[in-house]
Amino acid sequence: MARRTPMTTHIHHRKATRPGHLVRVGKRVKRFLWNLFSCAELAFLYVPVVVLVVYSFNDNSIMRLPLEGFTLRWYISAFTNEEILAAIRNSLIVAFSATFLSVVIGVAAAMSIDRVHFPGKRVFNRIILLPIALPGIITGITLLSFFRSLDMNMTLLTVILGHTTALISISVTQILASLQRFNRRLEEASADLGARPLDTFFSVTLPNIKSAIIGSALMIFTLSFDEIPITFFLTGRDNTLPMYMYSVMRRGITPELNAVGSVIIAVSFVLLFTSIYFLTRDKKHK
Amino acid sequence: MTLRDIRRMRGLVLLFGPLVFVLAFLVVPYLIMFSYSFYLKTYPTFEPDFQFGNYLLIATDPQYYRIFLRTFKIAAAVTVLALLTAYPMAYFLVFVVQSARWRTILYFALILPLWMSYLMRGYIWKIILGNDGIINSFLLWVGVVDDPLQMFLYNQTSMVVTFVYIFIPFMAMPIYAVLEKIPKNLVEASGDLGYSPFWTFLRVTLPLSVPGIVAGCTMTFCLTFGDFITPILVGGADGSMIANVIQSQFGVALNWPLGAALSIVMLGIVLIVLNLSQRVGKDERIEIG
User: Fold this and answer.
1) DSSP letter, residue B114
2) pLDDT in tens, A53-88
3) How far is CA A99 from CA A13, A84, A206, A213, A219, in A?
4) What's the gap in Å between the CA of A262 and the closest CA on chain B?
5) Nearest chain B residue to A265, by CA
6) Residues of A in contact with B201 (CB under 8 A)
7) Fewest beta carbons less than 10 Å away: which of A12, B168, B171, B221?
8) How far apart are the CA of B79 and the nearest CA of chain A, in angstroms?
9) What global pTM score does this model have?
10) pLDDT (tens digit, 9 = 90+) per residue, A220-249?
């Protein structure tokens, strides 16, 4: 504070010098400019999405103005396309498996960080959280090098392991936060009453971290379903949906892509709202 | 065995799975990639070696220096532009919007795109800016131009626009979080003491929001720095970034040792940025109450 110039140099004489109506007009102008700015920014974020959705219903394979008629044929052709259906199936397999693994290992990791004393805990914590902050390409090529050195072929399994590695930090942070909020006395009471550790875990601990588990699972599922930079290096002949779309996109734009994209966006929004519901519900309880 | 020993054992059993996972999929792969960076490229593959040729090539061949510099410039431009668009929006939500309900709704609208497919967010700009995209077809329709303009897509500007579009929510989230925590009476007190809104912002609000700015900038910078999808989708011949070079070394160029060395350099830069930001974040954090 001592270094600062005396604040008298910046004293504002507004109240003394400006007539009342000018202040009001000024306020209104300011308000208008703020609203204009925020509308422009939200338009920047959402007009492109609206364009995508609108063109997915437009009855012309070339995306141009003016719009032509309303059609569902891009949706029909996209969702009867064998390649797209296979890609969706693969993506579902990957997302479900990666979510399951991330949650199971995440619970164990979060509980270890919360309760077990071991040397190198801080390093362990740091390493497990690292991939979410690093560009996906790093996780992709380190794991590619690793799997190749084991002479493994790139399959959906390698993709699943890649996604788990990158996304486990989400379940660890959410579950750890939930564990730290929850009253440990309950577990002690359960043990005092003679429950075995596993019983205590399933009937006391698990119900208390349930919301964090469901919330982070939905988040991991959404991110895994959309994941591309890691999948790019770890996938073999089986394409996930984003990889399929990416390969089509490189050649150009097609209305089927708009249809699939609109559905993906709609589904991720639903998943996100569900996950927010679970994650905030837990916080409100405590 | 005492009760304590049993507890300890149980803890170790619990830790075993995650520990094996971290070692197998995080520690060992990084070490392997690190060792690849010393390997020797021999046509058509490569062989184990310990030599610094790959790093030497990166340090001496000006094309790598140029690409790193370009990547750095693009990531910096994206970070600055995303900050300049996201900060005022977060400020508007916290300090200007009066209704709590509208604040929540608008905040969600702001960060919602974060959960939208990354790929689709890049693709959208291809639809809008492309040769047969919306802007060009609009210009043709209105009759302003006779042939589609090439200027919109496949250059560095289209890349920066797409990146900013992708990263505004990333930037806005931490900034909103810190702004929201600033006690309103601090701002009021500053006004009562005679500071104009401008000086209040500069002397009170801005310094208190530094941790959020640092967090948002770090995330945006690091993720842009390592991206290779957006450059492929909307970047042109001069749009290749460092991750594109790495990707081609692991792909068509089949020079894994060079790719590994480039990745190590990129990883180093990203880790330095993360580390610096953690320090700055710590120094600037002002405890309130």
Assistant:
1) G
2) 888 887 777 666 667 778 888 898 888 888 889 999
3) 60, 22, 17, 10, 9
4) 9
5) B116
6) none
7) A12
8) 15
9) 0.85
10) 998 898 899 999 999 988 889 999 999 888
